[in-house]
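Supplementary Note 3. Input sequence used for the single-chain structure prediction.
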Amino acid sequence: MNVHDSERLSGLLESTGLVPQQPGDGTADVVVFNTCAVRENADNKLYGNLGLLAQVKEKHPDMQIAVGGCLAQKDRETILRKAPWVDVVFGTHNVGSLPALLDRARHNNKAQLEILESLEVFPSTLPTKRDSVHSGWVSISVGCNNTCTFCIVPSLRGKERDRRPGEILAEIEALVADGVIEVTLLGQNVNSYGVEFGDRLAFGKLLRACGGIEGLERVRFTSPHPAAFTDDVIEAMAETPNVMPQLHMPLQSGSDKVLKEMRRSYRSKKFLGILEKVRENIPHAAITTDIIVGFPGETEEDFQATLDVVAASRFASAFTFQYSKRPGTPAAELEHQLPKAVVQERYERLTALQDRICAEENAKQVGRTVEVMVTAQSGKKAAETQRLSGRSTDQRLVHFSIPASGETPRPGDLVTIPITEAAAFHLVSDPASLAEYSVRRSRAGDAWDRAQADSCGAPATGPSGTKGVSLGMPLLPTRK
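The predicted structure, written as discrete structure tokens, is reproduced below.
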């Protein structure tokens, strides 16, 4: 969601004539921080970077700094008190106001703070500058009606608001017309979609409707809530060819006692039951999750229950977090906050178990032939290995080589290749010959070619024909 919002912010600012800052451009004219508030380290990163930018702004007083997103919604005046050199603070509900706020701050020579308590405009209706030509994010809802005791999001994003299906499908069709072949449907609890307009089966219907969009090859979604996961969604996933065999579903804890304290309205048995049904209907589905270690009052027995569920679930990968105390959440007021050393030791045991499972599950992929959508980013060792990278249908990362005389695919093209090697966090394909390698050129690859040609054209200009100013992150001084 934060990436999606950042693409909208970039699109908004570029529509006013700003252009992205490139290496060597010098100091940016505008710097925007789009913040998260889920974990404490977001606060530390923001204020640390703002402190470094103070030195830059002292030398370049015309540079504008804006802070938006969840942390801005939460901290509000605190940001301007701690960093009075910030020009604009805006929240989660008024992303579209940023250009006007920057103009007002410059005209009035005074910092602008604007935080709304309810959504002004759905982010998906704003201009966008996508990071990828082949993939797009589509927000189907914003906000959350749950009351998880560890989570600050509902108070910052508000109650769930659902877009109408026609609007969503129209946006997807527009993306496909622009060359996108993969979309990811976004919602805080994506499978509770429809609650606002009274259709509890709306999400499954939406998945099926995506299956009817010509040219849309891959559909993903994140993140569903186990309590709202229904059989009709599993059936829609299994029966809609372009819905990918991949599911990200947060577990958070394997302990029923801890789940109750978290106000997660499901228990471990239900969670495992959903996984069993998904795998019955989609045998090769890759399932990933989120897990919190060290929730207040978590005992060794509770933690062992989490290890047991992880062992039974066989997740393809997991995002594991140490509990972060967020002021304003019920969990922050609970007794029995755990010592850091205890949380760290449990975290290391959990990641060791999950890393082993990741490696074992990836090893099962060796020998399979998979279709991979090529991405623009390659692995860290790409120069050494001469491999390109992409994502398989189940979202696994695959680094692959091109056999002698093989066609080089473009980002967005699809290659069919055998998996020849596996590591814990990626797969490798080194086809032995052209017989094991094929490229399917796609509309997304054509869009990549067009984007590359456009980027080599004339300098960007604003609406009035004037050259835009740069938008980006200036080089920060090194800490001493």
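Residues 457-470, 472-480 have pLDDT under 50 and may be disordered. The chain has 15 helices and 21 strands.
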